[in-house]
Amino acid sequence: MNVLVTGANGFVGAPLCRLLTGSGMRVRGAVRSPIAHGEFEPFVIGEIGAHTLWHTALDGIEVVVHLAARVHVMRDTAADPLAAFRAVNLDATAQLAEAARRSGVRRFIFVSSAKVHGEQTAKRAYTEEQTPQPRGPYAQSKWEAEQALARIAGNVMQLVVLRPPLVYGPHVRGNFLSLLKAIERRWPLPLAAIQNRRSLLYVENLVDAIARCVAYPQATGTFLVSDGEDLSTPQLVRALASGLSIAPRLLGVPRGLLLLGGALTGRRGAVARLTGSLQLDSSRIRRALEWSPPHPVGEGLAATARWYRQVRDGAAV
Hints:
CATH architecture of the largest domain: 3-Layer(aba) Sandwich
Number of helices: 10
Largest sheet: 7 strands, parallel
Strand order of the largest sheet: 3-2-1-4-5-6-9
């Protein structure tokens, strides 16, 4: 099978290409700039947008896995964040899908985000049947891309949409890396009283799910995907601290006070995500594609902490 993976040398793309190649597939990786090595046939595409020419990259390709995206950022400096997200996550995605359809690609796999459903759950986990209610430009651009892909694919090209929650693992960046640093530096974390539940997804579980979508004959539709074991924020901190072989400094502060502090410091959204719940019901992908995550959450968190220790001991993260 011939597969094109965009963002092939990224956090998710690199282990995915390694897995697909190890399974005997021929993998072509679309990357922004030349790379020295990789587990795929590199194809330099540059910055992607509404006018990217994909026809050469798609020659002979049967399945496209579209990972390249403008990712969620906490402090966006773009003059028009929604326009910036749409340029990559919507316009570039639609351009690729149009080219894939013209080239005879039979299946298009798009990694979206659980954020299209919203930022928090209350009593019930999100399911695929619920109407998306995206909050913020990143989630909005992903939801618009999903709708555009459905129109483009029609009845000609199979479409698979995966909606993961926060993805973690070796080489993670963003807020998860910041949390690792805070735990490792033994900063006091006022999270002991938080009783939330959040779905997470180990990167190796995500790439395994994507690989199943590539190979499974009947793979089509939209799927929420997670590790299947939801954790509270204090449980997450304790698990990472255990992997770092240190005792966490957890303090008990009411959530209301934390939200107030977040509002006063301009970080209410970040505090709300850290202390609120976001749960996914991933039973559909388990049932429809006969898939289950090969790595338990404890194993994934331990591997992430082990990577962090190795990088910390060898070079700055």
